[in-house]
Design brief:
The protein has helices at 24-31, 85-96, 107-121, 136-148, 153-161, 174-184, 191-216, 227-236, 240-251, 257-273, 277-290, 295-309, 313-327, 332-354, 378-385, and strands at residues 6-14, 18-19, 22-23, 41-48, 59-68, 71-79, 101-104, 132-135. The chain is built from 15 helices and 8 strands. It folds into 3 domains: 6-220, Nucleotidyltransferase, domain 5; 226-274, no CATH class; 281-388, no CATH class. A hairpin with a 2-residue loop joins strand 2 (18-19) and strand 3. The radius of gyration is 28 Å and the shape is elongated. It is 54% helix and 12% strand.
Length: 388
């Protein structure tokens, strides 16, 4: 259907069709755990005359997958004649306005801005930027980039979805095939492009489902995942207990100092917020033993815990001395910081020994008193929170 200048192709896949590791029905249902907000979702993917975007790039094929008539319905808007672009975009706009949420893969940086540009150049208003939108690429980057070395759709199909494309046309060839079609009118040249777009949308639905399953049930993840990245995603959704378990899983084999430090810092926040003192001490004692983070840094953190959480200046001073010794002589700024901490602790210890009746109850490893009655002053909290 359509006009002489553009066509609308449709097909429907049954919901019990399996694409990847689960059925489309399961992917649609559990994918909602990943978002986006909304009552009706459309999955969108485009094929264009160029991969760089810009005002000279046309969108000649717009694929939209939706749940309709008991299946996944694919609607492909195909631009046969560039002059018919405004008429095609009218129908595309009407179709998309039936749904209040969009799911894409790289739609934030490519598909939606390019479509918005095409609407504007045709003096039309689409308001795509106001539609609830989930870019699954953002989730993929967090969940798989460090583990897989990338997060392209092709890589995720091979490693996560476990699907293979038979005789698929490479994405870089698609613009040239469309140019050939414009010169020859041979639509058979584009059959692989229609199939490529359809396969992209099936994989998008499936990947959306896997991401939703991981976020909904992080305790039973069955695929490769970056535990730190998953923890960050759960933290952003205010699921702190699940996030903390992911950070603990990440620390089991994390060898990158930067990522390890971020995971330990995130766990530290959780333990402090939930007043779990014994795990907090164990966490940083383990970091001293593992040796991935700088030894002086882990020892300084222990000094901070004993000073501000447990109010035991004697033990804090012992850790501060060890931290200073582990630092070495070639970092004067850090040496000055640790020396300042040591001098402050010496004053506190002297005061505690001189006036034992005024000394605060010291904490213990079992957390007899996690914090003084009434909590800490803002100055104390600020000092403890400082991490460099």
């Amino acid at each position: 259907m359509g006009t002489a200048g553009y066509e609308i192709h449709t097909r429907t896949w049954p919901l019990d069709r399996v694409h990847g590791v689960c059925s489309l029905a399961d992917a649609v249902e559990v994918g909602r755990a990943a978002g986006p907000p909304g009552t009706s979702i459309a999955w969108l993917d485009t094929e264009t005359t160029g991969l760089a975007g810009g005002t000279g790039t046309y969108v000649f094929l717009i694929g939209v997958a939706t749940v309709e008539d008991g299946g996944i319905r694919l609607t492909q808007f195909f631009l046969r004649d560039l002059a018919a672009e405004p008429e095609m975009l009218v129908d595309v706009g009407k179709h998309l306005h039936r749904f209040d949420a969009l799911v894409t893969f790289n739609g934030t940086r490519f598909d939606l801005p390019l479509l918005q540009t095409r609407f504007l150049l045709c003096r039309m208003r689409a308001d795509l930027e106001t539609t609830q939108h989930l870019d699954v690429m953002g989730l993929a980057r967090r969940l798989w980039h460090r583990r897989l070395g990338g997060y392209s759709m092709a890589l995720l199909e091979q490693t996560i979805l476990k699907v293979e494309r038979a005789a698929d046309v490479p994405g870089w060839m698609i613009p040239s095939l469309y140019v050939q079609f414009l010169h020859t009118g041979d639509v058979d040249l584009l059959e692989p492009v229609f199939a490529h777009n359809a396969h992209d949308l099936l994989s998008l639905v499936a990947l959306h489902g896997i991401a939703g399953e991981i976020l909904a049930h992080p305790e039973r993840v069955s695929v490769t995942v970056d535990w730190f990245g998953l923890g960050r995603l759960l933290d952003e959704r205010e699921r702190t207990e699940s996030a903390s378990e992911c950070y603990r899983r990440a620390l089991e084999d994390e060898g990158d100092p930067g990522t390890r430090r971020r995971a330990v810092t995130a766990l530290t926040r959780h333990y402090r917020r939930t007043e779990q003192l014994a795990p907090l001490l164990t966490l940083w004692e383990d970091e001293v033993e593992r040796g991935v983070l700088p030894r002086w840094q882990a020892l300084e953190r222990l000094a901070m815990i004993w000073e501000w959480e447990l109010r035991d200046s004697r033990r804090a001073l012992a850790y501060a001395d060890q931290s200073f010794a582990a630092l070495g002589d070639d970092r004067p700024v850090l040496q000055h910081r640790l020396m300042h901490r040591r001098q402050r602790l010496l004053r506190k210890q002297t005061a505690a020994e001189s006036h034992p009746d005024l000394a605060e109850m010291r904490g213990t490893r079992d957390g007899i008193q996690i914090r003084p009655k009434g909590g800490y002053s803002s100055r104390s909290r600020a000092k403890y929170a400082t991490t460099r």
